Amino acid sequence: MTKKIKPSLSMPQIINMSMGFLGIQMAFGLQNGNASRILQNLGAEVDKLPLFWLVAPLMGLIVQPIVGHMGDNTWSPLGRRKPYFLIGAVLCAIGLVFLPNAASVTQFMGANVLLLAVVFLALMDASINVAMEPFRALVGDMLPKHQGTLGFSIQTILIGIGAVIGSEMPNWLTKLGVPNVAQEGYVADNVIYAFYIGAAVLILSIMYTIFTTKEYSPKEFAEFEGGKEIVEEHSKFSDIYKDFGNIPLQMKKLGVVQFFSWFALFTMWVFTTSALATHHFGLPPEDGSSVKFNQAGDLQNHLFGLYNLFAIPFAFFLSPIAKILGKKQTHALALLSGGLGLISMFFIKDTSLLWISMVGLGFAWASILAMPYAMLIDSIPQRKMGVYMGIFNFFIVIPQIVNVIFGGIIVKQIFGNMAMDYVVVGGVFMIVAAAVTMFLIKNQANETPKEIEDEIQQVHF
Known about the structure:
By secondary structure, this protein is mainly alpha-helical. It is about 75% helix and about 0% strand.
């Protein structure tokens, strides 16, 4: 059979197929910006926060390869990836509704409130991973390789929009008169209502992608592969271990970069509220419910919204910058900017100027969400796109697990529960990721100015 060339997609088609990421990232932004705050509201100590966050990387470690493998080897009337979008969205919406209400639910169930919160957090994490991994694989499924950077850049733009809305929603609700302080042991109404809105947006955005995107059939995939069937009749879960043993060299090298990058990101997500509370508001580490602590939580939401906002224009410029510098040089520059941004938070004492730190983080975040995947997809066989995207996630979750094991100990024993010092450590790790990118990763052989130019010419609305 003659191998057919996968057709290029229009900008509206790429936006439609990625729109669900807006809702997913809104949920992710709400979680990242408020999980530590919620847990401290419910009584968690600052040095124990990483242990509660352990559920997130564990869920990713378990769920994404399985979902990727299943997506690679099944077909339904709804499509190849879309069933997982829908399942993940529904379950995540349930978690969004119940996580901030864990204290109220405890009254009916009699369970430990922190344990119940962790259960709801695990539900959110597992379902976000069920929905997120297929979106990454969908870019590899639907787009020709020369549109790869464009596809992931569009996802980054939608991710940024969703994260800005999710991060800022509690602040917007506060400005509308919704209380941002609750009685001790409960979560403030502005956070609770923000999670409700996030659940609704998640469902609507996922349904939009499902109704506006038509996936290729197994027959069409076979034509793109020169006759090789995508869905394997005798595929089994044990094949995941074989696939892991055969991961491409480019993925291994990018995995090292991901390790240091995501160690830094996890540090920021877990400890920024406490870091701001102690370093900028002068609160003791054990304060987890005062008015000033909740102001620090609102400030974190605002700052997280800013770095996601800054990531949006950077996503537009990734392809043009890559044309001039190359993909690996672009990613290294972005990571360096992010590392300096995190470190600068220690030195910028005026909270009104912390937006400066977020500029560098926005550049890094835009690149982290796009460039590693754009550098990866050429080395992944089409029929294994889902499972290898899931396996690549190992290099995201393993550094988070390592951080869970050692982060709380370091913050307590070395830094005396002053979390800002550990945020600086995260910045150093991101700079190390930049150095690894420059010296370990090679630009792809087919990364020619002509191919990058083809992508740039399609970046218009």
